[in-house]
Specification:
Layout lengths: L17 H60 L2 H20 L3 H11 L4 E10 L5 E9 L3 H12 L7 E6 L8 E9 L4
Length: 190
């Protein structure tokens, strides 16, 4: 009893399914490898996030402890019998900051950026609340060009910030120079 199958090659041509199956298997393996890599990255990211959260928590606790200690110390300093000592220490700290300004460095740095035909008439350094130095200067020149050149040199220099010209005075009979009042941040550390 053998059964015969009829196969008509004209109506059902031979299909080459083997290359398609092999390619599908390779793509499936690649997708499994990518899935494994993604799972590994997710786990690593989760561990890193956990470590970061723990570090943030430790830092927050340390900050809270320091804040409470600072408030305790401030309450002690604000007591009436300690107020005089606090005022004196603030005054001394301010004087020490002012004393930390080096006139030699200021003049040396200004000499490098100032053109030869600009005269430094007045300079007054101030220590700002951010503990930086602000130079209030009065400069003079026979024309406006050299002062512009000085301002450009200041902006190009890493030692000075952007300069702002506050006002200027034209020459008079007694003074043949244009006078400019200039403010500039000085980047040298105290």
């Amino acid at each position: 009893m053998s059964q015969r199958m009829q196969l008509n090659l004209a109506s059902e041509p031979f299909r080459r399914d083997r290359p398609m199956l092999v390619a599908s298997f390779v793509v499936a393996l690649l997708m499994v490898a990518v899935l494994g890599m993604l799972i590994t990255l997710i786990v690593a990211d989760r561990e890193q996030s956990r470590d970061t959260r723990a570090e943030i928590e430790r830092t927050t606790k340390r900050l809270a402890a320091l804040t409470s200690e600072q408030s305790k110390l401030e309450s002690i300093l604000r007591q009436p019998n300690n107020a005089e000592v606090l005022e004196r220490s603030v005054l001394l700290n301010m004087l020490l900051r002012r004393k930390g300004i080096s006139w030699t460095l200021i003049f040396s740095d200004l000499e490098r950026i100032m053109p030869h035909n600009v005269r430094l008439i007045n300079v007054r350094p101030q220590v700002t609340s951010r503990n930086t130095v602000l130079l209030q200067m009065v400069v003079g020149a026979q024309s406006t060009g050299p002062v512009r050149e000085m301002l450009v040199n200041m902006e190009k220099s890493p030692l000075f910030g952007p300069a702002s010209m506050q006002n200027w005075v034209p020459p008079s009979q007694n003074d043949p120079l244009y006078r400019y009042r200039v403010s500039v941040n000085y980047a040298r550390k105290l």
